[in-house]
Amino acid sequence: MKARTLQREATARLKGSPAIDHWQKGREKIEAEILMIDLLGYDPEPDERLSAKETETYRAWVERRFTGEPIAHISGVTEFLGLELVVEPGVFVPRDSSEWLAECAIKRLKKRKHPVHVDLASGMGTIALAVADEVPRAEVFGAELSEQGVRLARKNARRLGLRVRFGSGDLFAPVPSKLRGRVDVVTIHPPYVAKNELADLPDEIREWEPEHTLTDQSDDGLGLVRRTVDESPAWLRSNGWLLMETDPDRAKDVKRVMTQGGFRDVTSTKGGAIPITRVIAGKRPV
Description:
The chain is of the alpha/beta class. It has helices at 3-15, 27-40, 52-66, 71-75, 99-109, 126-134, 147-160, 203-206, 223-231, 251-260; strands at 77-80, 83-86, 116-120, 139-144, 165-168, 183-188, 236-246, 264-270, 278-283.
């Protein structure tokens, strides 16, 4: 069957899925294309015919996606700022919308003479790995609560030949004490879903992502945000930056918490290929 026909079939099927969050117009078509590229290892011409085995596998992958299973789990890999990362169930799947957080960190770190970056709630180390790739002279550390996430982050660092250290623990707990007061940029994509809002999440998120990556169990979803604002100043150098990724609906609240915490020049920005994610940036309090 032709690639074009299969992708049209897949797009229609995915549009009917109650488990997928249909947040972006045309997203189903994009996902149908991604599944085929991941399967074949390249982007086929529209009239190219897939073998019977390839057709069977592609349709099976589409059905798995229909249930809400993340594409990265199906193919076993995902791409982030040009890096191919191995993915495992049980660890939060990186979103391309988070590329903006990495880009904001990279821009600031490139301006520093001896850049130091700490990524909190690092997951599988996505932001830290992207920074290490773009700013190879930077000293980069990723801190993640999940030991499985740390193991996967280290695995990807070895695969990619990137110089990043990772440690397991809560917020700054695993960060080497020698970095205290020396960090140029702290990044975090904190869980910001209020505990009573978990049930409202789409199946593809609620059923497939670890709960601790979605909520800090606070009533307003800002518990980890407040802790990060309180703890970051001791680790940041003068004029160091705290960058927090958040949902557009939480942006004003996160900005308020950072401002109340004494951070300077607090701004809310959005950008990247999918300009919906908000990054709230602020300089260390004096």
